[in-house]
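Entry 14. Ran structure prediction on the chain below.
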Amino acid sequence: TGLGADRVGGRERTIADSYSALGEFALAATHYTASLNAAGAAGLTSGARARTAMRAAVNLDNQGLASEGLVAGDKAFALVAALPADDRDRLNVESGLAGIEADAGKPEAARTRFLRVLEQQRRLFGSDSEDVLSTIDGLSSVDIDTAHLDDAVPLLTELLAKRRAQFGDENSKTIRAVNSLAIVALEQKRYVDAEKLLAPQLPMLERVFGKEHPLTMRLLSNLGGAIRQQGRNDEARPYYERVYQHNLKALGPTNPATVISESNLSLLLRDAGDLASAEAHGRDAASNAQAAFGDNAMRGIMYREFATILIRARQYAEAEKELDRAWAVMANAEGWGPTHPRSQDVVDSYVELYAAWNKPDHEAIWRAKKAVATVAIR
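Output, structure tokens:
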């Protein structure tokens, strides 16, 4: 009966959500499909079906399949596109779509959508509603990626306070908010502040969620970065190696999390003076960046980071090619552009390259780009 199918669909969606939260995305996908089939048999509303379909699309995105997730997300949103602009289901599904758009290389479109949805949700449901808090979570991530850091901080401060009030310190949603605030600190080069946020979380995460949970891996990666950037390579190395080995085994070499963790490890090895190992890992990360990130400008970061290793190894011609690839991606990407801090990292690397290569004319060209960008940012 329709009622029986409805119950089956709800149960399957709950199971799917649980597997997704554990990082078991393939198992989650199976149960999302079963839930969608049951929803169709039960004759559920388009809004209810769209919510489950969007969760399935987000699950694809979480596997590093942003392009496939975006196709599925567009189909999910099509189910509610004809509903009124202030319909709760439509707004929920649209928020999910914005998150996938950001990962698929459309951060400005995602940010515009998030802002519109958030304004409506606050007005209709109040700032304490889960609809609002979920959208804040997504919007703050896009703000970080597009260097709207001053916008991200108050959103994340609000989110963290409300998650703590709702769930306490040991809930995954609270931990996500803490981690996001730490990422802002990392982007602002406040490495001590980032470490202070993250270090107390680690023993709790390992106790509550386990040593191999995706949340634990994410925190380990960011904590390792905060420590490494303070010059404590030996202390950071076990974190970096642990995250990379786990991601490689669990997710494969072309998953975004694996590529990022391998690139991070290559930078640590570079700073430790092991240039041969650094180059091997950096080359792998750069080679897998396109498969991992598709149209997302994050792939440019992998090219630039590999170039910094090649500069240290005095392989200047190849380093120049990698920087050219990085600049072509990042200076022209939606939501990034030449004045984005990550793009300015590329400018700094060009200056370093041409100074080491004894090409003062080229060095002067890139120093001028740095000066122009500095004025633009102000």
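The mean pLDDT is 92. Will compare against last week's run tomorrow.
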